[in-house]
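I'd like us to work through together how a protein chain folds, taking it slowly. To get us started, please write out a protein record for me. Go ahead whenever you are ready, and we will take it from there:
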Amino acid sequence: MFEKGLLAGKRILVTGGGSGLGAAMGHRFVELGAELIICGRRLELLEATAARMRSELGGKVGVICCDIRDGAAVDAMMEQIWREAPMSSTWQAYPGVLLRRRRRDAICTETPPEGGG
């Protein structure tokens, strides 16, 4: 359906990229020519998934171990990624994790977040 090189020259980060939906999305992004970075909490799983993608697709797949529930860890991960090269896109495979975090942060502040939520 899409041209093979559709994402050529793009760098994409997929959180939760070691398995399930995140791994499936990452696989497709690499098929379409993207450079992929996957992150998650289980380094062995991430490395195995990245190795499988590299072997099957021949693309560039990087791995970063990061618990996205830890804001400081996310900041450090993003700094590391941006030091290497600019990002084209970020995909969150587990949106409920960040949604819960944003809601908790909103409850702890005196001013409501944008949109009044």
Observations:
- DSSP finds four helices and four strands in the chain.
- Residues 95-117 have pLDDT under 50 and may be disordered.
